[in-house]
Amino acid sequence: MDAYKDLAVSYDRLTSDVDYEATVKFYRQILNAEKVHPRTAADLACGTGSVTAILAKMGIPTTGVDMSEDMLTVAQQKTMELTPRPFFSCQRLERLRLPRAVDLAVCALDSLDYITEPEKCREAIRRVYRALNPGGIFIFDVNTPEKLRAMDGQVFLDEDDDVYCVWRGEFDEQTNICSYGMDLFQRQGKLWSRSFEEHREYAYSAETLTDYLKQAGFTRIAVYGDRRMAPPEKWEQRIYIKARKGIIK
């Protein structure tokens, strides 16, 4: 079963602890440091559009891109009354093609890790480079390999009155992939429906991603700790990476 198909309608409730405002605030710190004032943006792997909505509320025309039609349906409903109203497109990042280039591309919540074939990840980064205006900036975060390895054998539980979700992590050293099977129970009237999804993330190192960015043509690459304007510590579970597309002189 496709990841995020049955999960889409319950995703926001199960991730209510995610501080999207803090994530966008960190983007703004990076943008200020780079002296970039984006007029247009793309929220890549936008999911239910939480980051998209915040960017739109800042007055930035934003395109949300995701491979899940179900997640995009929720995103469209969430942002229906915003001005400027975001545009959404169902695409895989390794096939990304925007209707027009943007000044800012962001990719939140370890979404690049979901591209479990390194060559496709490399191609996705190439596509992002092409989708940016000269001087544009790409900001994204990933789970560190240390975090994904530590998930092996772990069991996690999320629930509220209408949703119950339990998932189990398994890390394969040979494939460098963390898989987690997710059992999802959702209330439907007096009954509960059960579904199963498998999510898989590739453990990309900062060095590997930096190399992909350089190959694509990016410059001014920097790696940060989790929402900190400082290099990551060894214990870091999430890192952010910033890169710029060269300015045509």
Notes on the structure:
There is one protein chain. Helix 3 (50-57) links the parallel strand 1 (41-44) and strand 2. The mean pLDDT is 95. The N and C termini lie far apart (49 Å). The radius of gyration is 18 Å and the shape is globular. The strands form two sheets. It has a seven-stranded mixed sheet with strand order 3-2-1-4-5-11-10, with helices on both faces. The longest helix is centred in the N-terminal third of the chain and has 15 residues, at 20-34. The protein has 249 residues and is an alpha/beta fold. Helices cover 27% and strands 33% of the residues. The chain has seven helices and eleven strands. Helix 2 packs across helix 3 (50-57) and helix 5 crosses helix 7 (206-216).
Counted by DSSP, the helix tally is: 7
Mean pLDDT: 95
Order of helices and strands: HHEHEHEEHEHEEEEHEE
**Mind summarizing the main beta sheet?**
7 strands, mixed
* Rg calculated over all Cα atoms: 18 Å
Termini Cα gap: 49 Å
Provide the spatial order of strands within the biggest beta sheet: 3-2-1-4-5-11-10
DSSP summary, beta strand count: 11
Estimate what percentage of residues fall within beta strands: 25-35%
User: Would you tell me the structural class of the helices and strands?
Assistant: alpha/beta
- Poorly predicted parts: none
Brief summary:
The protein is α/β, with parallel strands linked by helices and 249 residues long. It has seven helices and eleven strands. The strands form two sheets. It has a seven-stranded mixed sheet, with helices on both faces. The protein has a four-stranded antiparallel sheet with strand order 6-7-8-9.
